[in-house]
Specification:
Length: about 300
Amino acid sequence: MRWTARDIPDLKGRTSVVTGANSGLGYVTARELARRGARVVLACRSQRRGDAAFNRLLDEVPEARAELRLLDLADLASVRAFAAAWGDTPLHLLVNNAGLMAVPRATTADGFESQFGVNHLGHFALTGLLLPALRAARGARVVTVSSFLHLLGNIDIHDLNARRDYRRWLAYGRSKTANLLFTHELARRAAALDLLAAAVHPGYADTQLQLQAARLERSAVKERIARAGNRLLAAPPEAGAMPTLYAATAPGVTADSFTGPGTLRGRAGHALRAPWTVNDAIARRLWLASEELTGVHYAGLPA
């Protein structure tokens, strides 16, 4: 589709939250939403990196209505605190963007495998806790950033935290499958409400995700290789963020749609999606398991 940031409609009067907005796709998404008049909350884990992104955004969009709030998706106490502080303010757009990619095995503050815990469970809990604010807004949307690497594998419903066999790329792919299953089930449950759930993938975009594993391993060689790959092969963050901005703002976006470049990079359109990500039974089982693991139940949302 020939759609660019110039096609984003006027967003004055609308409020958005973008997780992981301190860099990469999240930052570009927040900046372009602000440029079109939305009030944007940058939900970031690090105060230092969040402050830097916030100041950069104000430099680039001086008229921006922006705010920084701390949110650590690897800690459900932080997720609950963020949602509690939000209060009754209507929320028109939640962009579940933050994530980890192919990192060495670790656990979150609540004991979940880190990629599954941050990429899926943290966003599952955040969305559920912000549901009253989303329902209070007219035409609200939840956009969750998945990946074409969800094609690496379906979730293992019996071993969601990869206790038996942790392979970091497979764990990443499964967490991105979980993002799509979450979107599928949320779209089904929200069908009777004024709430749209959609998913996207950025293709191969130049973000900080590719550097995470190398930095955690303290491998300068791997970090140089990742940087070279980004420089030679990846699309810039401005291009990688287009599917998210499209799903977040364009008219005609449909529930449970999956938008992304047809290849690793290129124009956004309908993206290839594995059949297991639209399996009703698996999506429901993951939803129920996520409720049990996080303790977050979507009050008022039909089952």
